[in-house]
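Example 3.2
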Amino acid sequence: MNKKTSIILSAIFKHLKSQPTFESIGIKSYRNLLEKSAKVFKPDKSIKLESFCIKSIEAQWLLPLHYNKKRIIMYIHGGGYIAGSINSHRDLASRIAVASNAKVLIFNYRLAPENPFPKGLMDVRTVYQWLEDNFLYPHRISLVADSAGAGLGLALLSELLAKGRTLPSCSVLISPWIDLECKNKSLIENKGKDPMLSQGILKKTARLYTDQDLSLPLISPINNDFSKSSPILIQAGEQEVLIDDSIILAENLKTSGVEVQLEIWKEMFHVWHYFAKYLSQGRLAVKQIGDFIKKYS
């Protein structure tokens, strides 16, 4: 890592560690802070935005200057099931749109604790069904999701597999949170290394999402069977407290015969892609996502 990158990374870590948690300021203020922070990350002016609704779900098309009209990405944002929006993740999703030469659909699913499991997942199902019904090439829909959004994406994928429905051409999981029991060793081993998350915060967030059994496969999709799934790319940071979620999932997928590509990025933290505006590793990771999607869709 060169000196410039090291300085940028240090500044990002310092910034993230200084941010309040939802516990200290309340969920509403936490959401507002995330929305305010997103103003720094504005997508390139060449990206065309088209807002609309899918039933009652707010959605937006992100259209690069040049894109393959037969290639669509459904993006499911993260935020621990309690925060995040079209606005907070627009820049990242737009970068992936450009890298993939694809139009991206991003949307606001219902958030906990006001709307606990399975309401957010129900919205994800609705959006995917809408794409299937309205897109001429449903077999070329790609799925991209980060953090808790990756949990929702994997839950959706497991249902599609179980029902024999059209699968995404491929899926990309960015720093997935897919074991809500929060029992893996990396939660302890990487304590203090990840400026964004901790085991304690994750456990409390999981309980805001649901009071049901956290091991249920639709809640913790790491417990699902993904045999016969389409190809999956997983990107995780070396210093993430959640890195074991990615490693265990990749091993399970490989054992099931699924084509899986696991990338562990040295010295990176949870969803470092979010800082692609400043961080070269974020831009490179987005490029890798674009290459993967273009290969399979």
